[in-house]
Amino acid sequence: MGGLNWDTPSLQQARRARAEELRARYPRSLALSSQAQRVIPGGNHLSGKALVDFETTPSYFDRGRGAMLRDVDGHAYVDYLMAFGAQLLGYVRPEVQAAAQRQGERGNLLSLNHPLHIELIETLLPLFPGAELGVFFKNGSEATTAALRIARQKTGRRSVARAGYHGWHDWCLPRERFVPEGLDRQVPEFRASDPDSLRALFDEHPHDIAAVILAPEMVLPHEPAIFHELLAITRANGALFIMDEVKTGLRIAPGSVSARIELVPDLLTVSKALGNGWPIAATLGRREVMEVAAGMHYSATFHGETSAIAAALETIRIVREEQVQQHVHELGQRLIDGLNAVVAASAVSATAYAEPLPAMPFFKFTEPDAELNAVLTRTFYREVLARGSLLHPRHLWFLSAAHTEADVDDTLETSRSALRKTLELCGGL
Ligand code: PMP
Q1: Which three-class secondary structure state does DSSP give residue 26?
Q2: HSE on the CB side for 334, CA within 13 Å?
Q3: 152 and 35 share one domain
Q4: 164 alpha carbon to ligand 1 midpoint, in Å?
Q5: Beta carbon of 151 within 6 Å of any ligand 1 atom
Q6: In the predicted structure, residue 148 carries a pLDDT above the cut 80
Q7: Among candidate residues 319, 320, 277, 323, the one with its CA nearest the CA of residue 138
Q8: Residues paired with residue 71 on neighbouring β-strands, in sequence order
Q9: Which residue minimizes the CA distance to atom 10 of ligand 1?
Q10: Do 73 and 156 lie in a common domain?
Q11: How many CB atoms lie within 10 A of CB 279?
């Protein structure tokens, strides 16, 4: 809507007073943030950034169970971040926990190989299109970095065309001052939804691009034809196609976006949901491509650690037996529809949508005035959090097997009330 008269002195004063009230809700969280400022650069690890700020939203949590999270000040939340997508089954899923614990008691990380290493790869291969050989890691950044390295080794070319976030390693941040000079020329970006932008890169760097790496959530609209066109362009130029399914692997029926759209990539990376909170990742691919990895170096001290592998095997078993992918899809859609109904009944422009699939929903204000949008966003998310739903203002959300329809309906009520308060503080009521 136009006409929100949101920036009057009395509303500014009301928003300040409300922020002061909210600040009093999180004393322990705030004290920990101050303590962290003294010993951790920036005061938090990368994924621990403030939801809105460290004063008016919670930032320290000490317990999770199912879909619930508890902060250090004792408030409970229905969590829609689920550790950035790692907790697909919900916190402390007993079977996963027990499997990981058993491995811990047997030594966890032994000197050389463990039979579970084979079992994990044998379990993963049939789940992903074209996967014939695989290697495992501890996080998504390692899996994508390995995929690039394998592609370079296989093709003898150096560059990689990329679309999406693939991790924190140098090649994903090629323009920063802290990475080696000239790296940006070797990892050019294309626009995921625009095949012509990929064609242009191949024209610019003929015979130089080893692989195209694509995070499938970047393709909007999420049309299979776009993926297949990107694949065809890649193949026509003699490069390899890597699907970076770190976010989508195991979460999206029937196990990956690749399977959903019947696309067989040369390499595929997975992590996040795989271990239900335990650190595990894998790079899988066609035999002919993956076998060059035999002579390469990508080993690390903790790769062979078995608690996370046992957790992953149990997670995969449960996902296959319990229709988890359908559950998170349906609940995500319920949340999206419900939020849009809440907004439709209000006097503000906002939209909830699948990013790009319902299991990963998101919500944003869409007022034409950017400053108003920022105020609405800050205010709304503070209010939602104060009412017990952990929705992230900047990162897409994740449903889990532990969420119920009742949780989602609670969150819709929470959102309705939070939006009402937001509009009261922004001149919309
Ligand atoms: N690829 C994609 C598509 C991701 O979403 C992420 C993490 N958000 C990564 C790679 C990197 O994974 P990690 O944070 O585990 O290193």
Answers
A1: coil
A2: 18
A3: no
A4: 10
A5: no
A6: yes
A7: 277
A8: 61
A9: 166
A10: no
A11: 19
Nearest CA to ligand 1 atom 15: 140
**Domain of 271?**
109-305
Together in a domain, 340 and 392: yes
Helix (H, G, I), strand (E, B) or coil at 30: helix
Picking from 280, 293, 306, 294, the residue whose alpha carbon sits closest to that of residue 111 is 306
**Is 271 part of a structural domain of the chain?**
yes
Q: Which residue type occupies 284?
A: L
In the predicted structure, residue 1 carries a pLDDT above the cut 50: no
Pair (182, 292) in one structural domain: yes
Q: Into how many domains does the chain fold?
A: 2
| 287 and 203 both lie in a single domain | yes
* pLDDT tens digits for range 262-309: 999 999 999 999 999 999 999 999 999 999 999 899 999 999 999 999
DSSP E strands, 215-304: 240-244, 267-270, 281-285
Residue 2 belongs to a domain: no
82 within domain boundaries: yes
pLDDT one-digit tens code per residue, 122-140: 999 999 999 999 999 999 9
2: pLDDT strictly greater than 70:
no
The rounded percent of the chain whose pLDDT value lies above 90 is 95
Measuring from atom 13 of ligand 1, which residue has the nearest CA?
140
Q: What stretch of H or E contains 39?
A: helix 27-39
Helices 370-386 and 405-425 cross at an angle (nearest 10°) of 130
Nearest-atom index, ligand 1, CA of 217: 3
Decide if 139 contacts 285 (C-beta within 8 A): no
Q: Are residues 70 and 156 in the same domain?
A: no
How far is the centre of ligand 1, averaged over its atoms, from the C-alpha of 141 (Å)?
Answer: 6
* Distance separating alpha carbons of residues 302 and 282, to the nearest angstrom: 14
Q: Is 28's pLDDT higher than 60?
A: yes
Contact, 427 vs 11, CB < 8 A?
Answer: yes
The answer on 183 and 61 residing in a single domain is: no
Residues 84, 114: one domain? no
